[in-house]
Structure formats: C-alpha cells, structure tokens
Amino acid sequence: MFRSLRPKTAPEITLSINGHDIIATAGQSVWSAMALNGQTVTRRAALSGEDRSAYCTMGVCFECMVEIDGVPNQQACMRQVSDGMKVSTQNITESSEATNAGL
Amino acid sequence: MQAFDCAIVGAGPAGMSAAIELANAGARVAVLDRGQKPGGQIYRSVSESPLPDANVLGPDYTAGAELLTAFSRADITHFAGADAWHLGDDGRILFSHLGETCELHCREMLVCPGAMERPMPIPGWTLPGVMTAGAAQVMLKSDAMVSDGAVFAGSGPLLYLIVAQYLRLGVPVAALVDTTPRQNYLNAALMLPRALRRTELLKKGLTLLAEIKRSGIPVYRFAEGLKVLGEENATGLQFTTKGQTHEIAADTVFLHQGVQPNLNMTRAMDLEHRWNLKQLCWQVVTDPFGQTSVPHVSAAGDGAGIFGADGALITGRLAALNILHRLGRLTLAERDRQAAPDLAQITAMAPFRAFIDRLYRPTDALRLPQELSTLVCRCEEQTLADLRAGFDRGARDPNALKSLTRCGMGPCQGRQCGHMVAGLLSEWRDERPETIGYYRLRSPQRLLTLKELSRYQAASAPAQTEAAQ
After folding, report:
1. pLDDT tens track for B394-447
2. Interface of chain A against chain B, CB under 8 Å?
3. Region label for B199, one of left (φ > 0), alpha (ψ between -120 and 50) or beta (otherwise)
C-alpha cells in the first residue's frame, strides 16, 4: 500500500482520476496521485487486456501510459498533476480498436 | 538559426558537469533534459526534496545540491522538460518541449542518456505491484512516496541502499531476498585486494549491510527460483534457498539486478557499440574522452558505460575538455594537462568497480527468462515460447525476430526486451553477443502526436557576447 511522507504544506489542486475527484499536491507526478488514491491500473495490455501498472517510474518501460485530458499514451510517471486535469486508465487494446473500426 | 557550440542531452551528473565546464570556458551550451529540474535520476529533486528531512537519503544524494548550484550559476541554455527524439549526425536535434516540436543546431553533441535498470524477467514480473528498486527510489525522491510492507528482491548496491533508506524512515519492509549467488562472493574475493585501495567505498557498502542486519527484518540469501505470486495483482514472492521454498506476502515487490546503459539514443544514432563482457550489457564505443565513432558526437556518464555517479561527473568533465579542444578553445597539450587528474582518478576507481561488477554480476537464470509462459516483450506481450517459435521458424537475429513476432515493436522501442532478446539468441545460436547484434533503432525515439509535429519552433543559440569571443 502506497503512502506519502510529504508534509502538508504545499499548495493543493484538484484533478479527476477515473471519474473520482482527487486532491493532490502541485508538482506531484500523475502516477503518485494515482497510486496514493488506489488507482494503480494505468493501462490495459494491448493484446490480452490484462491490467498493467507502473514498473520503472523513470520513463523507460512505458507501462504507465494513461489518457490525460483525452490524449492517450501519456506517461503518468513523467507528467505532473495540474488543476482540473482528467486522467483515466488507458483502455486501447486490439479488441477495442477493432470495435472502433467497426470490425 | 544560430548554432550552439555544444548541445548536451541529459542533465544528470555527466551532463551537468560537462555543461558547467563548457560554459565556464565561454562555449555556448544547450542542455536538453526530460526532467523539470536538473539532476538526472541520482539527484532527482535534490534542490527541493518533498521529504521532511532529505538527509535520510544519505550524503551521496545531498551532495548533488552543490552540483545543481554550480549548474544554475553557469551561463547555460537549459531546456527543462525537453525530450530529444532525433539526434542527427549533421548536428541537428529535434525535441519535444512544452507541446511543441523544437529544433536546434550544434557543432558538437554530447549524449548523456544515463542508465536504466536491468529487467528481471521472473514469472509474474508484469503484474501490477511489481516494480523496480529504482522506482522505489524515484517515488521516494520526487514524491516522498513509499510502499508499506514491500519485498525487495535481487542483488546489488542500489537494492541495499533503498532498503536502508526505507528502514531509516521507519517504513516496514517485509523482507530482503538476496539473489547474489555464493559463487559470486568467491570470484569477487580474488579481486578484493586491489579493490581495498578504496576502503571508504567498501566501508560504505558494509555499513549499509550492517544497518539492514541490525534492523532485524528477514533477510534471505542465495535465493533462487523467484516467482511473483498473484493472479491480477502481486500478492507475494516465492523463492527457494537452502533447499527450502518460502513465500512472503506483499502487495509490492521491488526487483533489482543492477543497471545498464540506456541504449536507445546511441543506438538510434548508429554509433559503434561493443558488448561489455564484465557487465553483460551493450555500451557505446568511446575513447578516454568520450568521443564516439562519429567524431563530433561524444557520450559520457552511465549511458556510455556503467561507472556510477562519481564516475559520471568525471567522464562528463573529460568529454567537455575534449570538446573545448575540438572547438579550438583548448590546445591538445592544455586539454591533456587539465585532464590528467581526472584520468588518474578513473584509473584509481576501476578496481573497485571491477569488484562490484563481479560480486553483483547477474546470473543467466535471472537475466534471461526461464519459463516458456514468461513475457519477454512487455509491450507486445511476446512470451519466451513465442520468441523460441520465431527462432525455430528461422529468425536468427533481433531484427528478424522483431519482424516475425513484433517483439521490441511497442512503445518502449525495445528498451526492456532488447538485451534479453539478444541474450536468448546468443544462447540459442551458441554465439557471441557481438555476432547476434541488437535491434536497429530509428527516430523518433518517443511517441509523438501529429498535433505536436505540426507546431514547430526553432531554438537559436544566444548571440555570442564580446567577452566570450
């Protein structure tokens, strides 16, 4: 279970993660805002659709790709939270793409 | 567009020390870095730690603040949050910055892409809750975030450091599962006499281990047959030691077995690489000053060969001295005179590095996947069985296997599976890694949207001041 040791002095902002309104600290990474609020599934694997979550948190594994404000493939570990940001688990798989294409 | 004298990619210890050296000598320097603040992975957030007391991270970390201060005082054009995705041997760099595509030109280029952790493909390593020990460090440094009751498994100084940091912070640790094989201690012992010349480093390591032992957390040594338990999330770690199988319950499993150069930038530039037999990884070929097979491209720091943060600081400075010579600002004799102490320091550090490399050399059983159902390519979900089938169908090298199975074709562009795929092919063909080769990589080295590509911005070097001329 993830926990923050940050003293509560930094300015707070509100963002939405998978439809839940969440209070976060300015300057915090999107991944940490997700993890501290129990939203650890960042994306679904492209073929199997299995849950995936952050692995390296330094930008080299691309497991933490989420959708931010409607734009997919954003690395949650490399992005910082901002007020009003909308984050959601990335659900782009082979089958979802086939459905979108009307197949 | 006004060209920079030198553009540096990466603002870790190597990039920062090089930039300071170049700027102080009057060269116009641009530094491109993905981070919002300089420091790289090692000195992440050192200037503004979110922790109540950053001293728990140790003096090696807090010492980075000095370097950051010198960097901020020097006359450097620093692009923070800049992701370089094309480095041309014509001196052109394309990068993403603030949602735009930017271009700059430079006479000399220095790449400092840093290290990444060596993937540890044990069964279940793709389950949510399995992360690297480096991730534990990054989360602690940038976000003051910890995971209570985690298991730490693997081998190497970074693993022991993060466990000690957790313990100092009073964060419960379920267990340390050490995979360093008995044979490594025996082999490394032969190298100990020479390494002992650096007693302070050895002492530092022993102090860490003693700190962990004193804490009383369960420590298992000589662990083998590691497997992450769980169906949808990690629920624990299973392993065998001294003939007994253990299961430790934990919702977070941090894995580590050393670091390797982050190759994508140097590979995409088609620079010459060699297989490092002692560290079991690829690295770019350079001369002692970091100059690569393309003369106006240099590389420094762990991205050019693993040597640690102290080494990175030195190799960055050496690269800068050679670049100053190439720019006509230092004579060859002056370059060599100024470089002498740093070159001597590198020589003095080598035996200890060799000892650490030998002691913590990863075993093939952990470096390469062992079970047919284990995913090798995380992005395209290719298992060991899939890759073996591709090999049996005639794919003999990494690029052929990529074409046939899609391994290495996903968003990480082979960063995770590259070494494993080359290692497997080397084993199956019973040939040296040099013969097997590596994925052929190309620009762009990141995911780009068309919108971003359509927004173009030229980044010109500042006009030369009279004092600098």
Report:
1. 999 999 999 999 999 999 999 999 999 999 999 999 999 999 999 999 999 988
2. 1-7, 10, 25, 27-29, 32, 35-36, 40-41, 45-48, 50-63, 65, 71, 73, 77-78, 80
3. alpha
B139 with A80: Cβ contact below 8 A? no
Q: Look up the ipTM and state it.
A: 0.96
Q: What is A8-76 written as a DSSP string?
A: TTSPEEEEEETTEEEEEETT-BHHHHHHTTT----EE-TTT--EE--SSSSSSS-TTEEEETTEEEEET
The tens digit of pLDDT for each residue in B258-269 reads: 999 999 999 999
Q: Distance between CA B183 and CA B275 in Å, rounded?
A: 23
For residue B468, what pLDDT is reported?
45
User: CB B464: neighbour CB atoms within 10 A?
Assistant: 12
Q: What is B366-436's CATH topology?
A: Arc Repressor Mutant, subunit A (1.10.10)
**Which residues of B are less than 8 Å from A45 in CB distance?**
126, 381
Q: What is the pTM of this model?
A: 0.96
In Å, the largest CA–CA distance within chain B is 73
Which residue numbers in chain B have pLDDT < 50?
466-469
Homologous superfamily in CATH for domain B119-257: FAD/NAD(P)-binding domain (3.50.50.60)
State whether A56 and B233 contact (CB < 8 Å).
Answer: no
Residue owning tokens 């090798």: B376
List the structure tokens of B83.
Answer: 């992701």
Domains identified in chain A, total number = 1
